[in-house]
Amino acid sequence: MANDKTGRVLYDGVFLPYSSTTAISERGLEIDAEQPGHHAFDQYVMIGDAFVPLVHMKNGDILIPAAEYDDGKRRVDSSKRLIPR
């Protein structure tokens, strides 16, 4: 589930990790709210009339709403190409 700052539900569905299309355990999941670019437009997918964020985790993974997994994965792939190594 993803909520906005006021608590309104944006997405009430499953998130899948960028690294795999299988669900992961809730154990040890910690959101990285300080992730650079977390608020960038390319870090959201449109579901219905809501922009739902891609969720950056402290372990380095990114959770993508399953309902728009392909779009979310494309956005992550694009942003990774733009970051110099």
Overall tally of structural domains: 1
Using the CA coordinates, give the radius of gyration.
12 Å
Summed over residues and divided by their number, the pLDDT gives a mean of: 80
Q: What share of residues is helical?
A: 10-25%
Give the termini distance in whole angstroms: 33 Å
**Strands, count:** 7
Q: Please tally the helical runs, counting DSSP H or I stretches of 4 or more residues.
A: 1
Shape: globular
The SSE order reads: EEEEEEEH
Map the helices and strands:
Blueprint: E1 2-3, E2 9-11, E3 15-17, E4 44-47, E5 50-53, E6 55-56, E7 62-65, H1 69-82
Antiparallel strand pairs: 1-2, 3-7, 4-5, 6-7
Overview of this structure, please?
The longest helix is centred in the C-terminal third of the chain and has 14 residues, at 69-82. This protein has 1 helix and 7 strands, in the order βββββββα. By secondary structure, the protein is an alpha+beta fold. A 3-stranded antiparallel beta sheet has the order 3-7-6, covered by helices on one side. It has a two-stranded antiparallel ribbon with strand order 1-2. Strands 4-5 form a two-stranded antiparallel sheet. The mean pLDDT is 80. The chain has one domain (2-82). The chain is globular, with a radius of gyration of 12 Å.
Q: Descriptors for this entry?
A:
85 residues, alpha+beta, three-stranded antiparallel sheet, two-stranded antiparallel sheet, 16% helix
State the gist of this model.
This protein is of the alpha+beta class. It has one helix and seven strands, in the order E-E-E-E-E-E-E-H.
